Every structure is written in C-alpha cells, then in structure tokens.
C-alpha cells in the first residue's frame, strides 16, 4: 500500500519558519543565516534528509548546550594556501561557509585554498559548501566525517560515518556541475525520514543491530556502505577518504569516538567535528576561459551520449536543478513531524 505524500510548502514560508525557530533557540543571526541557507539548499534539491527536517534537532542541541548559540569563529592562516577555522562549537553550517570564504581568498592568491575546520558540528548537506565556491567561479571540494553508523565491507558493527564527498565546478552561463554523495548507501537521516513517513527503505541499504539487511526503517540500526553487500568495499574505502581529510588532517574526532548525533542523553557536550574544504582557482591552471570552454564541451558530449532504451544520460547536478525548479514551482515537501515543529 502506497503511503500518502508529504504536504508541500512555499520556500519563502519555510525560510521564515526555520529562521524563527532557530532564533527562538538562541542562535546568532550569522549562524542561523548559514544554517537556513544550507538547509533550504538541501530541501530544494531533494536531499530532504538534510533539509528543513533538521531544524528541530538543531534547536534541541542549541537549547541543551551542545551547540554554542553565539560562536566566535576564528581563522588561522597556516601557509600560502592553507588555513584552519575554529568553529567555536557553533552550528556547523556557519563554520563550513566560513571555510569556503577563506578557501576562495587563499585560492585567489595561491591557486588553491585548503581549509580545515575544528570544533564544529553537523553541517547538513556537504554539497551546499561545494556549491558556494562554484557559484563564485571556483572548483570546490567539501567533506566531513561523522559518527559511526555504517558497517565496513564484511563488517559486523558500525565503524565509519556516512562521510559525504561533495564536488562542484562552475559552468559558464548555467548552474554548476555538482556531485554530493554519501559514502554509505543512504544517510541515517534518510532512515529517520522513512520512519516519520512510515515507508519502507530500499533493498540493501540498511541492517538490523545484528547486521541482517532490512527494509523496515523502524528496526534499521546500521547502514551499509555504498555498493551494498557485494561491492561495499568501494564505499567503505571512500568513507576513509573523508576521515583522512576532515579528522586526521584537522586533529579532530574519529568516527568511532563521536558522541552520537542521535540516541544519547548527552546534548550538552560539544562533538568537535572536523570538516575540510579545498578550493581551486581555474585562473591559476589552464585559465578561467579555457576551463569554461572545456567543461561546456565536456558536458555537451556527456549529455548527448547515447542512452540505453528508456534511460536518460545526465550530468551530476542535472537531477538536482530539475528538482529545484519543480519544488520552487510546486512547494517543498515536509514530513509531518517537521511540519508540526515548524507550526505549518
């Protein structure tokens, strides 16, 4: 039996309600502006698990003391093309956008800007930060590691987080090329979203506490790495790439050592999450004009490549931009729990 679809609401109304709830929880104007921007990006492009549905969680963490309501972010330049951002335990969106800003500043001078983030928290969809650089003309990579919830390949317990890898690149005259992928088959927030909607999970993406694959979101406790039962070694290894950049290079928390994002009574202790952003200025390589011409030709060739019967060839970002247009026209779906929290 098909479950009812979630009700839809205008983008402007959601921005207003999310900002209001974060303000009630005490978030500073700067940090909540960053959080609203990142959450609405996710909701607009169809990454509902990291969109406005997280407002309630962030508000609880602000009220409980895990998140600093008035963070004082500091930037420490460590080299010609490197820097560290201290997020002061505030909302991770604020620190991550600051890292992109610093990365662009470094890249304008050195060609590349590699920026680590420490003392941060959950940042939502990593693609929001890769996109922020690409919209300003930079090739941008963003990643973070998270608390253990994904089995290793052939593993029988949680080890890595969902550990996203996001890349974006500017394309002349149109929206950026954008890839934002978890290294797990799905993010944990997708499981929670399915619980709220009481809808089944796809096959091969989650398992019970005993490691048995399941489609029931109410008993799912562990995620499977990208590639599932047969090819999960690829996703498990890529998850380690996120940990390498965002935890090992920044000196922050390893996946198994995090205070869990959910399911703990401790909502007052900061989690010291690390993130990593790499920003590249095309002008310091082939040149912006040459890069723009090349990526335009590349995408034309990709999109006109023959498709199998019934299929459609798309570039990374094509689905997201189409979804954004549809949702701006018809409203953004919001699950019932989140709609109630936002007073919708």
Automatic annotation (TrEMBL):
InterPro entries: Mal/L-sulf/L-lact_DH-like_ah (IPR043144), Mal/L-sulf/L-lact_DH-like_NADP (IPR043143), Mal/L-sulfo/L-lacto_DH-like_sf (IPR036111), Malate/L-lactate_DH-like (IPR003767). It comes from the Bacteria. Keywords: Oxidoreductase. One of its GO terms (molecular function) is oxidoreductase activity. It holds the Pfam family Ldh_2. SUPFAM superfamilies: L-sulfolactate dehydrogenase-like. Belongs to the LDH2/MDH2 oxidoreductase family. This is Oxidoreductase. It comes from Devosia elaeis.
């Amino acid at each position: 039996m098909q479950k009812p679809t979630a009700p839809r609401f205008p983008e402007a109304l959601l921005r207003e309600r999310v900002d209001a709830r974060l303000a009630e929880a005490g978030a500073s104007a700067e940090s909540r502006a960053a959080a609203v921007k990142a959450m609405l990006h996710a909701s607009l492009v169809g990454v509902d698990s990291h969109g406005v549905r997280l407002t309630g969680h962030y508000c609880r963490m602000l009220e409980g003391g895990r998140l600093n309501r008035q963070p004082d972010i500091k930037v420490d330049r460590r080299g010609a093309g490197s820097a560290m951002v201290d997020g002061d335990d505030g909302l991770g969106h604020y620190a991550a956008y600051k890292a992109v800003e610093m990365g662009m500043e470094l890249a304008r001078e050195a060609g590349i800007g590699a920026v680590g983030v420490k003392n941060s928290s959950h940042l939502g969809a990593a693609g929001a930060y890769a996109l922020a650089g690409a919209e300003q003309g930079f090739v941008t990579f963003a990643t973070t590691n998270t608390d253990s919830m994904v089995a290793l390949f052939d593993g029988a317990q949680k080890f890595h987080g969902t550990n996203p890898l996001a890349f974006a690149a500017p394309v002349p005259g149109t929206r950026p090329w954008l890839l934002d992928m978890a290294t797990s088959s799905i993010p944990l927030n997708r499981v929670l979203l399915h619980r709220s909607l009481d809808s089944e999970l796809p096959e091969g993406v989650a398992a019970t506490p005993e490691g048995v694959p399941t489609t029931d979101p109410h008993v799912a406790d562990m995620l499977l790495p990208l590639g599932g039962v047969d090819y999960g070694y690829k996703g498990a290894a890529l998850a380690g790439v996120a940990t390498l950049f965002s935890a090992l290079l920044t000196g922050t928390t390893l996946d198994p050592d995090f205070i869990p994002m959910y399911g703990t009574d401790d909502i007052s202790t900061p989690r010291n999450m690390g993130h990593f952003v790499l920003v590249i200025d095309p002008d310091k390589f082939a040149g912006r004009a040459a890069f723009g011409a090349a990526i335009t030709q590349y995408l034309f060739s990709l999109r006109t490549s023959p498709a199998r019967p019934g299929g459609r060839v798309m570039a990374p970002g094509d689905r997201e931009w189409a979804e954004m247009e549809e949702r701006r026209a018809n409203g953004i779906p919001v699950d019932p729990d989140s709609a109630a929290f936002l007073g919708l």
